[in-house]
């Protein structure tokens, strides 16, 4: 273990010159077919909990993402939520969108990839419909945010799930926070449909690699720990459909847990800006492969037979490397790099 606009949208849908094509899945999980820069592989970054107008090393993380993307030929970027602190966006004209996103991730190498974002609990404190609005793509064409969706690239599918409505405390004990639950209520019906659609999409996916992305933790040694509501309601579906990875933010750290019970690899990439130094709970060292309480991000490269994961710190150092092979029998190797 290592401690440490409508018009714009319409044009996207109908033009062949862009790599993103929207499809409608049978289970109503909005689906996008992603073409890749390199045949036979999909490369992407994952960064979460970042939207602080460049503060708390957000700009430094963004700079390293740009430098590494210049060499890595990244196809897309996933944001694991809490995209705009502290209380989401106030509307589609909120200057925070430019101040925390467009002006920060400004490297040329980060202009091509689409940014696929899920909502975090802090995003629900603001105007959720603004953050979901296609009007933001008139401001920055990279931006795509939806509650739940799937990205398909032949041999791999990434399923993004809206995890905030699962958490009971946000409804029963919201404290000083006001949540924008438009589109979620009645909650029971929303969650039931989401779980049913996800189960259907996973079950009938022919992808060799299945990855699920959400904001909240399922397994974590960080500040929030395991999210019990997700362990109860979401994890059984992930286990039953034998997904490979669950990737989240919420805990402001970089983390890798190999869960002996579920056989799922759990990755936390929540170090996009403010981190929580020294905030770690005990975890079985046989399972906890990485815990880093600083800023950084994660990269993933997947081919038909291999998945290669790297975690980078704010200086661009590789903190942790891990790979998995799907040749005949799954084999796992990992290597930690101390910097």
TrEMBL record:
Q: Which Gene3D superfamilies match?
A: 3.60.21.10
Q: Where in the cell is it found?
A: Secreted
| Keyword annotations of the record | Glycoprotein, Hydrolase, Iron, Metal-binding, Secreted, Signal, Zinc
Q: Which GO terms describe its molecular function?
A: acid phosphatase activity; metal ion binding
Catalytic activity annotated for this protein?
a phosphate monoester + H2O = an alcohol + phosphate
Superkingdom is Eukaryota
Q: How is the cofactor bound?
A: Binds 2 iron ions per subunit.
Q: Which residues bind Fe cation 1?
A: 49, 82, 85, 252
Q: Where is the Calcineurin-like phosphoesterase domain?
A: 43-253
| Chain residues that bind Fe cation 2 | 82, 121, 215, 250
Annotated protein name in UniProt? Purple acid phosphatase
């Amino acid at each position: 273990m290592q401690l440490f606009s409508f018009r714009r949208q319409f044009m996207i849908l109908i033009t062949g010159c862009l790599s993103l094509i929207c499809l409608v899945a049978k289970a109503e999980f909005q689906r996008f077919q992603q073409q890749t820069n390199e045949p036979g592989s999909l490369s992407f970054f994952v960064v979460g909990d970042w939207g602080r107008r460049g503060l708390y090393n957000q700009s430094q993380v963004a700079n390293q993402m740009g430098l590494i993307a210049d060499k890595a030929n990244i196809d897309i970027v996933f944001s694991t939520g809490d995209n705009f602190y502290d209380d989401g966006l106030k509307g589609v004209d909120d200057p925070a969108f430019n101040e925390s996103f467009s002006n920060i991730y400004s490297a040329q190498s980060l202009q091509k990839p689409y940014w696929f974002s899920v909502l975090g609990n802090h995003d629900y404190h603001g105007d959720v419909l603004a953050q979901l609005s296609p009007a933001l793509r008139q401001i920055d064409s990279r931006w795509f945010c939806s509650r739940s969706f799937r990205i398909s690239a032949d041999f791999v599918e990434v399923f993004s799930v809206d995890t905030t409505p699962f958490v009971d405390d946000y409804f029963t004990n919201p404290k000083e926070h006001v949540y924008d639950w438009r589109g979620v209520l009645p909650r029971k019906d929303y969650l039931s449909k989401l779980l049913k659609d996800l189960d259907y999409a996973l079950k009938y996916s022919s992808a060799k690699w299945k990855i699920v992305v959400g904001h909240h933790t399922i397994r974590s040694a960080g500040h929030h720990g395991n999210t019990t509501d997700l362990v109860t309601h979401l994890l059984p579906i992930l286990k039953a459909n034998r997904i490979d990875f669950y990737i989240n933010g919420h805990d402001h750290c970089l983390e890798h847990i190999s869960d002996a019970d579920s056989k799922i690899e759990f990755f936390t990439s929540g170090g996009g800006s403010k981190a929580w130094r020294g905030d770690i709970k005990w975890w079985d060292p046989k399972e906890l492969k990485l815990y880093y309480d600083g800023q950084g991000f994660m990269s993933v490269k997947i081919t038909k037979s291999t998945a290669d994961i790297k975690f980078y710190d704010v200086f661009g150092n590789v903190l942790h490397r891990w790979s998995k092979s799907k040749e005949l029998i799954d084999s796992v190797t990992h290597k930690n790099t101390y910097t």
